[in-house]
Amino acid sequence: MGLLKNSLANLKGHKLRVFVALLWIIIGITSVILVSSIGNGFQKEIKKSVNNANPNKTTISFESADNTGLTNDMSIFLKPFNAKDLEELSFVEGVERIAPARDGFNLDSTYSSEASFDKKTTYVEVGPVKKDSKINLICGRDFSLDDEKRKVILLTQQSASEIFENPEDALGHGINVNGTIFEIIGVLDDSSNQQQAGGFLGGYQDMQFITSLIPKKAFDSLMSQNSYSTEIYQLDLVCSKGYNVNEVANNIIAKLYEMHPGINGSYTTPDPTEQTAYLESINSNVNKYVSIITVVAMFVGGIGVMNIMYVSVMERQREIGIRRAIGAKPRSILFQFLVEAVFITVCGGILGTIVGFIATNYVSKYIGFEAIPSLNSLLYAILATILTGVVFGLIPAFKASKLDPIKAIYK
């Protein structure tokens, strides 16, 4: 108890030095908590993205024989997919829907086009409305049952502002989307709907929240008008319930080879095992980087504490010499400096943990997903601070215990 009191008294007498040492540890622990929380949130977002993915959906791509893919020059001679293919493939057993892939999104996600009104033009992403869609409007009305067969649209706030001076002025007007006139019945609240879309990975799972919305039949009509391009390089497939999507995809690939005998390349579909392995490698890399940052942060913090303790030993040589001269054992000197180092690191660890949790909540607002602190990260922080204090405090403490009392007194 007396050893602890002496240690606290010495720390109290060197407040600036203690503050600098604390700062090193606080920065280190805050970094550990923050990075591990971001890593946890990132992993959760990946799992959520995988879980939300439709198990009945996949893609079918074409890869040229030289593994370089299709270049513009090759596309003149090589047409891996065409309109006739789509018609034939739609009759393959288990196919609910098959269509050209667009811009890397799922086939029922969005359709990109120019939209115009009274010589004013903008670029819009249009998606089909779903029954479970939660739509927030700044003006106008939501879809009704009667709208299913009509050409109506809920325009994004940004698109409405680009064409009309005021979003409210858009209501009731007709907008031309690639040759089809849609009546504007409402304007979406972009900021609110983007937040619902989930940000980061989740944003691509429900793209209708950040696009202009039209009835599903109208969307299918738009797609059918523009699906049969002479250049189709990837297909999106939705198989019927009760069918295995991989089996259906393989049947489609077999059918494609029948329709394109001797084509210079191969048709492929994503391998679920490869996708799983890829996600596992991401998780493994995240954990590895978190561990590396933890080690580096605590090493830097430990070096700072060790330097401060070395300075303390040099300044207190006379005190150490007097204590040794009146009977203090080297072990008690060592323990005193070790207690001081551990006390500094533990206090810094507690403060760093608090700052880390606060920083985590703040950062979550800007990274597009929730950073999640975990109990493991808290335990790692506590363990890391204790080990840092012991390991980096031991060297200066050992030096202090080995000082010659006579030389120390007269220095």
Q: Percent of residues in beta strands?
A: 15-25%
Q: How many angstroms does the end-to-end distance come to?
A: 30 Å
Q: Based on CA inertia axes, which overall geometry fits? A: elongated
Low-confidence stretches: 67-78, 103-108, 194-209
Number of strands: 11
Radius of gyration: 33 Å
Along the chain, the helix and strand elements come as: HHEHHEEEEEHEEHEHEHEHHHHH
Which structural class best describes the helix and strand composition? Answer: alpha+beta
Major sheet summary line: 7 strands, mixed
Percent helix range? 40-55%
What is the domain total for the residues? 2
What is the overall number of helices?
A: 13
pLDDT average, as an integer?
75
Describe the structure.
Residues 67-78, 103-108 and 194-209 have low confidence and may be disordered. This protein has helices spanning 2-12, 15-52, 72-75, 83-89, 157-163, 190-197, 216-226, 245-259, 272-315, 317-325, 330-363, 375-401, 405-409; strands spanning 57-64, 95-100, 111-117, 120-128, 137-140, 152-155, 174-177, 180-188, 212-214, 234-239, 265-268. It has two domains: 2-49 and 275-409, no CATH class; 102-232, no CATH class. The protein has 411 residues and is of the alpha+beta class. 54% of the residues lie in helices and 16% in strands. Strands 3, 4, 5, 6, 7, 8 and 9 form a seven-stranded mixed β-sheet that branches. The protein has a four-stranded antiparallel β-sheet with strand order 2-10-1-11, with helices on one face.
